[in-house]
Amino acid sequence: MKTALILGGAGFIGSHIVERFAREGWRVIAIDGMNPRTSARSENLSGIQSVTVIEQRVEDVANLDEYLSASDIVIDTMAWTAHRLALYEPEFDHALNQASHLHIATTLAKHPAKRLVYLSSRGVYGAFAGKEITEDTPLLAEDIQGVHKLAAESYYRIYAKLHKYSVVSLRFGNCFGERMPTRGEDIGLIGGFIRDVLEGRPIEIFGTHRTRPVVYVQDVVEYVWRIATNHSFYAPFEAFNLNGQNIGIHTIAQQIVDSCGEGTCIVKPLPHEIQTIDIGSTPVNADKIKVLTNFTPSDDWSEALRHTIAYFRQNL
């Protein structure tokens, strides 16, 4: 039986990846520090068979080398996704989005030929103003989270080459779906919009003509599965843009209102705080990963949105 080591495995995206690998007959080891400010919850893994759960920060796992040695694939989903809050808590963001990944990157020195998939961010590109963003677009992060995610990528790129293991980095943003955070501040664009509608507040849209790349969590899982099980990992480090579709923020808000059957949208000027870290509206080109995996997410995300809204109704 093959073994997958999922770091951050009790979180929003990580738990879906755990579920997919377990369903496919893999043994899964999920490590998660269960930080209450992340999406990690033990109930995300309830009912999933063939899963060993270690509820510790990855830096504190004494026998991490044993788990790494036993794994056929390592998937690093560890993250804190609060872009705005990270501006005011850079040390906390650093711990979750940079330091934990450096620990893995250096620990893998003892495990040459190991394969790892890292879930990165579209934010590593910053506010690129060209025609489209490809994997060759310059990396100039504009917010704290993007800086730390880029640093984590850089650690993997350097140490993979030095210690002869292989890393694939998947860059994406605005992932939504079941198990995403429903409470706390800064829970993401789509989650925040859904919560506002269901709690009786108007959706506030800042600025006009702004778009965002949007991807359903199950499409992220499908890409990870195909990369992990079919990709040969020839290069020490390779990056792929991962994208569902680029959608106008106003369109996203209106579709949420329509799907909820209630709510309103209001447009406000873009606040200085958000303008400072805004990544712009340049579309993301994901042709490279689509060709590699022979997978393209559906253009119709209405059903995925309905599933997500139902999840929010149950958990708010």
Please sum up the structure shown.
This protein is an alpha/beta fold and 316 residues long.
Describe it for me?
By secondary structure, this protein is α/β, with parallel strands linked by helices. The protein folds into two domains: 3-175 and 214-241, Rossmann fold, CATH 3.40.50; 177-213 and 246-283 and 299-315, UDP-galactose 4-epimerase, domain 1 (Alpha-Beta Complex), CATH 3.90.25. The protein has helices at residues 12-23, 64-70, 83-86, 90-107, 144-163, 189-198, 217-230, 249-260, 272-277, 287-293, 302-315; strands spanning 3-7, 27-31, 51-54, 73-76, 115-119, 166-171, 175-176, 203-206, 211-216, 237-241, 245-248, 265-268. It has a seven-stranded parallel sheet, with helices on both faces. Helix 1 packs across helix 7.
